[in-house]
Amino acid sequence: MIFYIGSIKIKLSFSFVALIVLMIIMCDERTVICSLLSSVIHECGHLFFMCVTTDIPKCIDFTLFGMRIDRNSNTCISYKKEVLVALGGIIFNITFAAAGIILYYFFSASYFIIFSTVNIIVAAVNSLPVSVLDCGRAVKYFMLIYNDASTVEKNMKLISAGFLILFWSFSICYYIFYGFNISLFALNIYSILITIIKKWS
Question: Diameter of the chain by CA atoms?
C-alpha cells in the first residue's frame, strides 16, 4: 500500500501489516497499541530533527523490522546535525516515557506504565552501539567529525562486532547460571537479523 503526505511517500509492506495482525491476535491490546505508538514516536523523533536540519525525507517505508526513512539524495547536512538526527528517536522515546510516568502519577492508570515501559525498551534497544542502530550511527557520525571515512568504517566494524560478541557471551553466561531468558534471546536474534538485513538493503 502506497500513499503520499505532501511530497513524502508512505509505503506499508505486506510483512508489516501481517505483523500487526499477528500482534493483535497474540498479544494484549494495550501492549500492541503502546508498541505501535512507541515505534511511531521513535520515527517522529528522527523526522522532527530531519525537518529542523532541513533534511526532508523522500519516503517512509514500514517494514517487518520497523520503519525505514529514505532521504533525498541531494540533501547534505553536517556530521554534527547527523548525530542529532540519529539520536532523535531515542530522545523522543525517553521524553514520552517520562511524560507517561508523570501521567501515571496523576491518574494511576496502568496504561501509562505500559506506554512508558515500551518507550524505554525501544530507546534502550536503539542505544546499543551497533552500526545499523541509532546509537551506532550517532557514534559513526561523531567520529567522522575528527577522522577520515575509512578509519571510521574499520572502527565501527570493530565496535559492532565486539559488542555483539560481548552481548552473546553475557547471554550464554546468563543461560548457564540462571536459565533461559526469552527477552535476552529475542534481543540477540534481533541484533543479528537487523545487522544482516540492513547491510543487504
Answer: 54
